[in-house]
Amino acid sequence: MNKDYVPNTENLIEVNQLKQYFPIKAGFGKTIPLKAVDGVSFSIKPGETLGLVGESGCGKTTVGRSLLRLYTPTDGDVFFDGQRVDAKSIAGMRKDMQMVFQDPYSSLNPRMTVEDIIGEPLDVHKLYDSKGDRRDKILELMSLVGLNAEHATRYAHEFSGGQRQRIGIARALATNPRFIVCDEAVSALDVSIQAQVINMFEELQEKLGVAYLFIAHDLLVVHHISDRIAVMYLGRVVEIADADELNNNPLHPYTQSLLSAVPYPDPKMAKERQRIILEGDVPSPLHMPTGCAFRTRCKYATEQCAMECPQLADRGDGHMVACWNK
After folding, report:
1. Does position 134 have pLDDT exceeding 90, yes or no?
2. Which end of the chain offers a freer environment for a tag, N or C, measured as fewer CB atoms within 10 Å?
3. b or e along 267-301 (b: 16 or more beta carbons within 10 Å of the residue's beta carbon)?
């Protein structure tokens, strides 16, 4: 934690050098740190969507959970509206910072009705005057996410995946938050349902002015919904840029490879695009290579890449890249 760090008051969320290490037993009473998140920095303005992409195991979900202190960060600073998020202050911020979890099947209590699931945040934060007021707010939230009033008395197992995710979104919106972490919020849904839920997120943002950290694998989905996109690789952010800029002009070799793998519906366009195949396997986060973590799979790697890890540097118009050769 850097006590001298001063956040930019224009940003709703500011993350500075966030680290999340998990101790892993290595035998004989020893532990070694698994560096799930290793010095991540970014900011999100009010009403903005920052997309966070990267392959499985790169630390995207851990960033979201550490940001909301569902995990206690190992090091680094997180600020919400200019105020430091720590063990004491988070209690007063919970109402304004919510999360939509990845798995709609395991994130809902099977013993509670939909009405009680959505109403639980209202109960915790005492956000209603009477039982009638509570029910009215729950029905309003259900209507907002496209659920019918008769669904209120049903249980989670009676719904499809898309409907369950809507219940999770309604629960996150119950406290009228200013910031929501959407952790793979559409990856478990059918493609047709994905489009509906993404459109709903955009409509809610227009209506309520809420900011999102949108974590996903699918670059097409992220490009559609995000104002800016951050790309993660093995616990570090390697590139951040405006969504269109990143899509049209990716600078980091890893981002270029990710974008080359995006399927395009136009056969002619797909044929012209050159697929960049990465060689080798993703290194273990327990035994990271020296210097740049991506160098073992990068065709541009030099001796400098092995000696020193590059920091994010501005290449113009807020396009930040962590690479010695770009």
Report:
1. yes
2. N
3. eeeeeeeeeeebeeebeebeebbebbbbbbbbeeb
